[in-house]
Write a sequence for this structure.
C-alpha cells in the first residue's frame, strides 16, 4: 500500500469517481424506498381498518374514486362498524406568491381527526373547522402564512416533516369540508356559465318561477352542485372484537361500493403506483451495478498493469503467489472502501437536497456495502490473474 | 565449499527453423567466497546460464546443486524454487531495480519480509548492510534521490540481506561510469571475501577482470574457462 503515498491524488480521484457511482447505486435503492414510503404514508397514517371506495375502482390513490352521498351513515348502521368518516384527496397546483406550488390536499375528518397524530415539527394541529391548514415543510410555506385556495384563504397553523404524496408532493391537511371545497372549487366564470345553463334548463320546465330566475340572476348566488361534493372514499374503523371478514362479506353485497382492508389498499397502491417505478429503478440499478463492476475491473486491471515491473521484481526475488494476490486484492479493497466511504458522505450531505425522498436504512447501507465488496473482489480477480502471469524474467529484459 | 555447481546444462529456445541452442552442455562451479566472471558477446547464452542458475529459467537437461543440495535435475525441481530464490540467491541487475516508492531501508527490508523476517532485528540488519556498503547515511532516501552508484549499493545490500550463499549479478556496472563500475566490482569481491558468498557476475567490462578469481567465457552456448591475464 506504500505505493499509494506516491499517487495519493490520482488514487483519491479514482476513489471519488467510484464513490459517485456507488452513491448512485445507493440512491436508487433509497429513492425506491422513498417511493414506497411516500406511497403508503397516507394509508398508514389514516389508520382505517377498511377503505370503502367507488365500485370496481382501486381506491383514491390508484385512480379517480367518488362515493355516493350518505354512504357514511349507511356504513355506521352496519354491525361491527364503530366509525365511518369521509376521505378526500387530490393533487392541485396553484400560484403562491411567485411560485407555482404543487400540493396534495387531504381532508381530515373533523372533529374526530384534527391532525393531532401528524408528525408536527412546528405549530399546532387544526383548532378551527375552517380556514386552517397543516402543511408539509417541503412546500416551503411558513407558519402564519395565508394560502389562497379557491374563494377562501387558509392560515398555515402547523408544519409536518416528510408527509408527501405518492407523487412526492407535500401534503396539505384541512378539514374534510374545506378539502372538498378546495378540490371542487370552480372559477367565477364557470359558475356564471352554470347559472346560464340552469336558467335555460329552467325555462324548459314547469318548475320555472320568477323567484328562481331572480336567484339565478343574482351574481352573489353560488349555485350548489346537484349533490354535495362527493368524497373519494369512506374510512371505516371496526368495533373491538368485530370480524373484518364478516364486515367485508356484508359489504360485498352492496352494488355501489367496493371495500378493501388497509393492507389490500396498501398493496393496490404499491402495485398500481409504485410497481413500474420499482421495475425501472431496479433495472437501472442492476445496469449501474454492472457498469460499476466493469469500471472497477478496468481500474484494478490497469493499476495492476502499472505495477507489472514491481510485481515481476517481487516474483524474481521469490515472493510467494499469496503475496502477489494480497497486493492486488488489498488495493482493490482499499479502493472499494474509500469509494464506498465517499458514497456514504455523499448520501449524508447530498441526498437530502434531492427533490424526492431518498430513504436509506442500515439494510440499504449494508446491502450496497456487500455489493461493493463483491464487485471489488471479483474485479480484483482480473488483476490477480494478470499479476500471476507476469514472468519474473521480465526484470532481466531491462 | 561449493556454493553452486552446474553440470552438463542444456537449454533450447524455439522449434524447427527458429530453434536456438542457448546452452550446450555447460558445467561450472562457484565456491563460497569466490568471485566469478561470465564473459561473452551478446546472444552467447550468458543470461540463459544466469537465469538457469537463478532457478528462473530451468534448463531442460543437466543438474544444479546449491550448497551441495540438488535443486534441479533434467528440468525437474526439488523443492519450491521461489522459496530457494528468496533464501539462497541474491540478485543484482544492470539497473538497480529498487522499488521506487520504498526508501533504501525499506527496499532492503522487503526481501527480509518476503522471508518472513519481520521486527526490529530486520531494521538493524538493513542498517548494518547499508553502512557496510557505504550508504548508511542514505537509508531514508528514495531511489530517485540516490545516484546510480548508490542505487547499486542499495541493490547489493538487498541481495545480501537474507545472507544467501550465492549472488548472481547481470551486468551490474553497465549503467555506471568506469570509476563507479570498478568500485561496485570491488564491493562484490569484498562481500565474497568477508561474507563468504559466491558471486557470479555477467560482465562485458574487461578492465575489471583482475578483480575476479575465476573468469569463464561463453560463446554459442559453450562455456570455457578463460586464461586470466592479471
Amino acid at each position: 500500500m506504500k505505493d499509494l503515498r506516491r499517487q495519493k491524488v490520482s488514487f483519491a480521484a479514482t476513489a471519488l469517481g467510484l464513490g459517485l457511482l456507488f452513491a448512485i447505486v445507493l440512491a436508487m435503492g433509497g429513492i425506491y424506498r422513498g417511493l414506497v414510503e411516500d406511497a403508503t404514508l397516507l394509508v398508514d397514517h389514516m389508520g382505517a381498518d377498511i377503505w370503502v371506495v367507488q365500485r370496481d375502482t382501486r381506491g383514491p390513490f390508484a385512480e379517480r374514486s367518488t362515493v355516493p352521498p350518505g354512504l357514511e351513515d349507511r356504513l355506521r348502521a352496519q354491525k361491527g362498524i364503530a366509525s365511518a368518516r369521509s376521505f378526500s384527496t387530490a393533487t392541485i397546483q396553484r400560484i403562491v406568491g411567485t411560485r407555482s406550488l404543487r400540493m396534495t390536499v387531504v381532508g381530515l375528518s373533523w372533529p374526530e381527526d384534527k391532525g393531532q397524530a401528524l408528525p408536527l415539527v412546528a405549530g399546532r394541529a387544526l383548532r378551527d373547522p375552517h380556514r386552517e391548514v397543516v402543511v408539509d415543510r417541503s412546500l416551503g410555506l411558513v407558519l402564519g402564512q395565508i394560502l389562497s385556495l379557491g374563494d377562501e384563504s387558509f392560515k398555515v397553523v402547523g408544519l409536518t416533516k416528510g408527509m408527501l404524496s405518492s407523487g412526492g408532493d407535500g401534503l396539505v391537511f384541512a378539514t374534510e369540508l374545506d378539502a372538498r371545497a378546495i378540490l371542487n372549487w370552480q372559477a367565477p366564470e364557470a359558475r356564471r356559465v352554470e347559472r346560464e345553463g340552469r336558467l335555460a334548463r329552467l325555462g324548459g320546465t314547469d318548475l320555472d318561477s320568477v323567484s328562481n330566475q331572480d336567484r339565478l340572476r343574482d351574481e352573489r348566488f353560488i349555485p350548489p352542485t346537484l349533490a354535495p361534493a362527493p368524497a373519494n372514499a369512506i374510512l371505516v374503523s371496526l368495533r373491538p372484537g368485530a370480524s373484518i371478514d364478516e364486515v367485508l362479506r356484508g359489504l360485498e353485497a352492496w352494488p355501489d361500493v367496493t371495500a378493501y382492508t388497509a393492507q389490500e389498499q396498501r398493496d393496490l397502491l404499491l402495485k398500481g403506483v409504485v410497481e413500474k417505478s420499482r421495475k425501472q429503478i431496479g433495472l437501472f440499478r442492476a445496469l449501474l451495478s454492472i457498469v460499476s463492476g466493469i469500471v472497477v475491473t478496468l481500474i484494478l486491471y490497469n493499476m495492476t498493469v502499472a505495477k507489472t515491473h514491481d510485481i515481476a521484481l517481487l516474483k524474481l526475488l521469490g515472493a510467494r503467489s499469496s503475496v502477489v494476490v494480497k497486493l492486488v486484492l488489498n488495493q482493490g479493497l482499499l479502493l472499494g472502501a474509500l469509494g464506498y466511504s465517499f458514497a456514504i458522505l455523499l448520501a449524508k450531505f447530498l441526498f437530502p437536497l434531492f427533490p424526492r425522498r431518498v430513504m436509506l436504512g442500515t439494510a440499504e447501507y449494508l446491502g450496497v456495502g456487500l455489493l461493493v465488496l463483491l464487485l471489488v473482489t471479483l474485479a480484483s480477480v482480473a488483476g490477480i490473474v494478470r499479476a500471476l502471469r507476469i514472468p519474473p524474467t521480465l526484470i532481466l529484459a531491462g | 565449499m561449493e556454493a553452486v555447481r552446474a553440470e552438463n546444462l542444456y537449454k533450447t529456445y524455439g522449434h524447427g527453423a527458429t530453434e536456438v541452442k542457448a546452452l550446450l552442455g555447460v558445467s561450472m562451479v562457484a565456491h563460497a567466497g569466490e568471485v566469478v566472471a561470465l564473459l561473452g558477446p551478446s546472444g552467447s547464452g550468458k543470461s540463459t546460464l544466469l537465469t538457469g542458475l537463478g532457478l528462473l529459467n530451468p534448463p531442460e537437461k543437466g543438474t544444479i546443486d546449491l550448497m551441495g543440495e540438488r535443486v534441479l535435475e533434467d528440468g525437474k525441481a526439488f523443492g519450491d524454487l521461489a522459496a530457494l530464490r528468496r533464501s539462497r540467491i541474491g540478485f543484482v541487475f544492470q539497473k538497480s531495480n529498487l522499488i521506487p516508492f520504498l526508501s533504501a531501508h525499506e527496499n532492503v527490508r522487503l526481501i527480509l519480509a518476503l522471508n518472513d523476517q519481520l521486527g526490529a532485528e530486520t531494521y538493524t540488519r538493513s542498517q548494518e548492510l547499508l553502512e557496510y556498503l557505504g550508504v548508511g547515511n542514505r537509508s531514508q532516501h528514495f531511489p530517485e534521490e540516490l545516484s546510480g552508484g548508490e542505487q547499486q549499493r542499495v541493490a547489493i545490500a538487498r541481495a545480501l540481506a537474507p545472507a544467501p550463499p550465492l549472488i548472481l549479478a547481470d551486468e551490474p556496472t553497465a549503467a555506471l561510469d568506469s570509476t563507479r563500475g570498478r568500485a561496485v566490482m570491488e564491493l562484490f569481491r569484498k562481500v565474497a571475501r568477508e561474507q563468504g558468498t559466491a558471486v557470479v557476475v555477467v560482465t562485458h567490462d574487461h578492465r575489471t577482470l583482475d578483480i575476479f578469481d575465476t573468469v569463464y567465457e561463453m560463446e554459442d552456448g559453450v562455456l570455457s574457462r578463460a586464461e586470466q591475464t592479471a
